[in-house]
Amino acid sequence: MWEIQASTLKEDIVCAETSAPPTAMVVFGASGDLAGRKLLPSLMQIFQRQLLDDRFYLLGAGRKKLSDQQFSEITQQSINVPAKDSESFLKKVYYVSGDYADLTFYENIKTRLSELDQKHEVAGSHIFYLAVPPFLYTTIVEQLGWADLSCPHKPAYSAPPRLVVEKPFGRDLQSAVELDNKIHRCFDESQIYRIDHYLGKETVQNILMFRFANAVFEPLWNRNYIDHVQITIAESLGIEHRGSYYDKAGAMRDMFQNHMLQMLALAAMEPPSSFNADSIRDEKVKLLRSIRPLTAQGSQPGEENIIRGQYVPSVINSEEAVGYRDEPGVNSDSKTETFVAAKLFIDNWRWKDVPFYLRTGKRLTCKDTEIAITFKKVPHSMFASLGMDDMAANILVLQIQPEEAITLSFQAKRPGSKLCMSTLNMNFRYRDVFGVDSPGAYQRLLLDCMLGDQTLFTRTDDVKASWRLLTPILQAWQKDESVPYQYPAGSESFPEADRLIESDGRKWRKLSVI
Ligand code: BG6
Q1: What is the side-by-side strand order in the sheet with 57-62?
Q2: For ligand 1, is residue 401 a contact (CB within 6 Å)?
Q3: Tens digit of pLDDT for each residue in 311-324?
Q4: Does the annotation count 259 as an active-site position?
């Protein structure tokens, strides 16, 4: 049996970590980018943290013809640890090649699995990870079904097979429903793990602890005390080498439908009754369904509450000389958005009429991911006679990246003069307190999948609720002849994005690292 390490280290520190049960992980696309950058290094790190069972093994699968030895060498290059430390991990690594559309490939996988299950004493606990482009999802899933590898009820198996699907899950509501229906023919919902890697980030998970393990914040977390909320995922990077994927996706499908809406759901949902997958996912779905429909174009210019932008070369900064349309793999007249900003309302008792301003974009000034809660200002200033009648509001910032931190700003007296007040920040930086970097998101998600814990994975109704909200906007943008608003690469914002919030008398928070 595997071990549950639960310890109360000091009176007030409660930690729980469970190591993975014996598992075989089959990674489709094993020699590809995602596997090399995220999956293989994360598995190695889980192994180094001694959370991977001794009997675990990895079967890489892909089109490229590789021997076990060659794949082991690729793995060694990806995991970036000295060879002496990876030796025992690499003994668990195998490879099988074939054509994704050919049933023989899956018959070979099946044969390999049964040999390796015996060798490693795994008893049929199989995870199939789709680290491949989305157009291959249904082909692979259907073939797994034909090869009888998806069947949930094999008595000899210690756990039903699991399927891990990367985002984007569909391109819009209809394609997500179709994909879901096809997957459901072979896999039951309890076997499906839809990944949104933001949910694996420590600080995103901390939203739950912060809100629901402290009595002080939740009573204020509503329309009576909160003026507005801003959620930002800004990236300084562009699309790197992913032009051909990104040009078909855009910021809405790549970031907004998933990472942005998941952060919104965690920040705004009602308290779940317990820390289990369905209680939490029920509340997230309810929240997503309460978002008021968006408008891509108003009857008057400036009436829209969601806008899109695209970066163009900067005329000021020569380092930002490449515009989106000049990127490799991108159409020279592309209308794909690299920036989305929206003003959302959540129509429920807690949030009625509180605006949520969301923005995400590539090639902005810096990387900055945060949720900022701006509270209402004091209702009356007793300092008005001294010229202080408009005091700054308290702002609580949950910074997700690049620094993991929580900051609360408040007004305080400065020493010296009879009355001198300024805004101060109370800061909590993870790195200062815990002294280590948080484990990467994929470690958490891979471990949870091996443990059969679906809490941090998106459920079918969650994905459909987000597409239901955004599909009308995507359709309107597709019909729209006009191009997205332009912003110079490396800039902080642009006039149309500013207008979205400034027309309400508010401002975007400055992009910066705390
Ligand atoms: C991915 C997107 O899901 O998230 C990328 O496809 C984006 O375009 C990335 O750059 C951002 O993730 P992170 O963890 O670096 O914020």
Answers
A1: 93-97, 57-62, 24-28, 126-130, 162-165, 192-194
A2: yes
A3: 999 877 777 789 99
A4: yes
